[in-house]
C-alpha cells in the first residue's frame, strides 16, 4: 500500500534553533496516526510542513504521492490548527458556509456536508450565534467541523480535543474511528494526552525535533517493557540522552 503521507529527511530550523531534524515518517492510508510529544517538541511545525503552510529547509514531503506544496492537494486535506482561525463577527453557519465555499462542491452537497459537520460537533443549535459569543470549546468544535466540511481524504488535527469536555471527546473519537473504518480516511493527530495516543493505530514519539520511536501503542510498550505508553515515552527519552 502506498503511504498517504511520506516525509523523507525533513529538517527545519528557525534561526539557530533546529526544530526538526532528519524526520522520516510514513503514514499508511486509513490509519489514525498520533504524534505525541511535549510542548515545543516540534509537532506543530511538522504538521505545518505536511499541510504545506511551512516549507522544510531540506528533505521532501509527499501527500497522496504529490509533492507538497500543491494547491489542488488542499482539496484533499482537512486541517485543524491549534489556534482557531475563525471569523468572530460571523455566525458559526456563516463561517462554515465561507470555508465550504473555498472547495469545489455542489450547493446541495455543501448543505448536507455543513449539516453533517455541525451535527458531529454538536453545534447545530448554535450555528446562528456569532462566533465572538462562542466559548473556547465551541470554537474548537467549529474548527473541527470546518476541517471536515469538504470531505477530505486526509485529516490533520493539531490537538483537536483540547478544551472539549469528556463526553464530546468520546463522541469525536468515535467519529474518527468511523471515518477511518468506513471511509478509509487517514487521520494525523497531535496530542499531549496519553490515553488519546493509545487510541491511535500508530504513534510517533517526538522529542526535541526528532522521532524517538514509532509503532503501535502495544509494540512500543512491549519494546520498552512497560504497561503504560507514558512510561515508554519516558524510557525512550532517557535512552536518547
Ligand atoms: N515561526 C517560528 N519562529 C521561531 N521559532 C518557532 C516558530 N515556530 C515554532 N518555533 C519553535 O519551534 C519549536 C517547536 O514548536 P512547535 O510549535 O512545533 O512545538 P509543538 O510540539 O507543537 O508544541 P505544543 O505542543 O506546545 O504546540 C519551539 O521551540 C518553538 O518556539
Automatic annotation (TrEMBL):
Keyword Nucleotide-binding tagged: yes
Q: Name one Pfam family in it.
A: ABC_tran
Q: Which GO terms describe its molecular function?
A: ATP binding; ATP hydrolysis activity
**Which PROSITE patterns does UniProt cross-reference here?**
ABC_TRANSPORTER_1, ABC_TRANSPORTER_2
Q: Which InterPro entries does this entry report, sorted A to Z?
A: AAA+_ATPase, ABC_transporter-like_ATP-bd, ABC_transporter-like_CS, P-loop_NTPase
- What UniProt keywords apply to this chain's record, in alphabetical order? ATP-binding, Nucleotide-binding
Question: Cross-referenced PANTHER family, in alphabetical order?
Answer: ABC TRANSPORTER G FAMILY MEMBER 20 ISOFORM X1 (PTHR43038:SF3), ATP-BINDING CASSETTE, SUB-FAMILY H, MEMBER 1 (PTHR43038)
Q: What is this protein called?
A: ABC transporter ATP-binding protein
The organism of origin for this protein: Planococcus glaciei
